[in-house]
Structure formats: C-alpha cells, structure tokens
Amino acid sequence: MATATKPTSGEPSKTEEKAQNDGELKKYFAMYTYHANRPTNQELGPDGDKDARKASVPDFLQREATSNRDFSLSVIATDLTAEDETDLREFIARRLSRGTVYGGVGNVNTVDIGSRVMACYYCLLRQGAHPDIERELESTMDPNSFYTSQECVMCFLSSPTSALELFRPELDLISEGVLPLMEQKSADPAQIQTHLENWYEKATQYVCRCVSTLREDVAYLINAALLEIHIEIVGAEQSFKTDIEKFMKACSLSDLLQQSCDAASQATSGASDPILIDIDEAGNAQANIRSPSRAAHRSRLVFENDLHRFENAEKSWFCEEWSKTLLKGGDTLNPAFLRQVIEDYKLHTIQDLNTLKRLIRQAETDHYALYRAYAFLRDCGCGAILLRHIWKDENTVSAKDTQNVLNVLEEFISETDSSTLAA
What we know:
Helix content: 40-55%
Oligomer: single chain
Number of strands: 8
Distance between the termini: 24 Å
Radius of gyration: 25 Å
Strand content: 15-25%
Structural class: alpha+beta
C-alpha cells in the first residue's frame, strides 16, 4: 500500500558537501524578519455584511500585497552559506511581493539553492503592530487604512524526497515555537539558533524512533490511536513519551475526518452523504450518542531494563498489517517512507468508513445489505474502529433505525468472532 520510496542522493552543492561526506541528510534552516504594512480589518466591511466582506477579500489581499512592494528581509538565524542564503532570500522575497504567503499557514515548494533543487517549507508568522514605527508614520498615514506589523518568515529546507509536506503540522509547531522567543524584551539570536538547529529531528525522526523501538508492537499504538484510547506510559524518558504522543497523533483519523467535515459543510444542501463526524471549534469530537464500552478500559506501556510490554492493550490484524508494512524492507530510518505508509493506511480506513456508512443506510430497508455490512465488518480487520466512528457520527446515528442496525451488527460480530472487534 505504501508508495513512498527511499531518498536518492544527487550531486551536492557547496553547502552540502560536508553533510554528504558525513552520511547525513542535507537539511538547513533560515529565519527572516521584516516590517510590513497591513490593511486594517475595516477594509473588509462590517461584520454583519457578509456579502460585502466576501466581495472585498480579493481586494484586501491585493492591497496587502501591493502595499509591501518595497521591503528588506533581515536574517535572524541560518546555517546556510552566504551564497545559498542569498538564493533563498530572493525566493522568499518574490513570494512575499506576490502576496502568496499567508500568515500561520505553512507551504512547501521547491527552490533552487546553488546548483541543487531542494524542498522548502516556509511559514509567515505575524507578531502584530510595531509600536515605534507606527508612531512615526501616524502623521503621514491614515491609521484606519494601514498599520505596521513586524513579520517573521521561517524556512526549513531538505531534499525533495524528504516529503516535508507530510510533516507540515510538526513544522508548524516548531515555527510557532519561535514567537515566544521573539516576543521577549531582548530576543537572543543564539537561543533562536538552538531552537531551530534540530528542526528535522524534532519534526520527523519521532516516527523512526517509535517504530525502531517498539517494532511489531507498534500495532498497539496504532490501534489505540484509531480508537482514541489513552495509553499510560510508565518508565520511559519524557522525550520518548513525546515521540509516542506525536506518533499516535499522526496515526489518528482526526485530520482526515476534519477535512471531510469541512468539505461537507461546503457542499450543497442536497448532498446525499452526511458528514462523517462532527468536530467542534477546538477540533474535538462532540459528545457521542453512545460511547462504546470497548474503548473505556485503560492501557499501559511499561518500560523496564530496555524492555517494554503492553498491558490491557489489544490490536486488530489490520493494525498488525499496518505495523508490518512500516517494518517492511528494514526502512525504519526513513521518516518519509514511514509517514507515507501511515497516510496511506489512514486513507484506506476512511474509505472503509464511507463504505460502511453506505451499507448501513441500505441495511435500514434491505436485509441483504445488512448481511453485506456484517461481512464487510468481519473481513475488513478494523471493525471496532469503524463502528466507533460511526457511533460518534451524530448525523448518521440520529435515526432509530440506524441505531438498531448498528446494535444488530455488533451482536453478530461479537457472537461470531469477537477477535474481529479487538478493542
């Protein structure tokens, strides 16, 4: 199922020779700051006039871009050579002048650095209005039209095969972590440099550490992540606990379900398929109509003398297959491959969830469809996961007939093969 491939090396640029000689993946960072003129929110119209606000958004973005034609980027921290940093600076300046870089949203694109093409993650971080410059411009600029903001641009570069786009949430967190350092009264460049030096290890290597340490037992983590079961970790260092938390978050279906929710909210009212799951403003699932008892138990992962064991934890054969794919070919040191495997299996699970939804709707009036739904749950290997998320979908289970179908399916599965719903 996994489509990721092992990174391949090419001819290095001057800044990459040392890293290649040391056998390390070529990776760099750079952080810039500059002052920008931003239109005020008043340019978007009154809050109550939604049509006016919607119509003025393109004008707002255009005015924001054209108001910053002339600016200079100041490098705060980087490990690039002066020559390659100049190439990156020109790339970022072009993006900013076109107005294609938006605050708080990380982007991944390719950039020519020296004689080599690299993948570049870049994110604009806004610190707000700069009071000193704002006071200087008050006499010549209408304060109701523009304000002066101090901006930061974070850049992380690596080989195109490192698949930085798969690790965008982790890179976003690292970027946001710079803001508290910048907001200090005396921002320390050395402290910022230290925060950014190990960006690649922080953003990607956690998946390698989890798979290499737990091996086949990583299936327990996958099963718990998909079922949203908390695992208590005992005896592990805090750094590895953080790795496990990141790994389980990466395996969770929350991001894909959120995308499904957003897509459904934009669809017409006549759409045939309801939203898979309701997500509140904080990104959490809303209260269930029914909370499956299978997810109520407490699992533990205990480390003792370089050994580990799971207590009160279960796994399905689907999760075992998932873990075997992660270990396939001994590619546990390639985070891009491992993360691609995770994303492929998550997508497969969402597809199974949609299939089950359709079968359940048909089963409300068709007994043969009820049997097909049962056979699907029995054979898919992730029946407990699918049923849990179906129960959490208030749009799907609001009807009494749907709840009856789900109850019948759970009874059939538990009587026929309880291991199918291992959770």
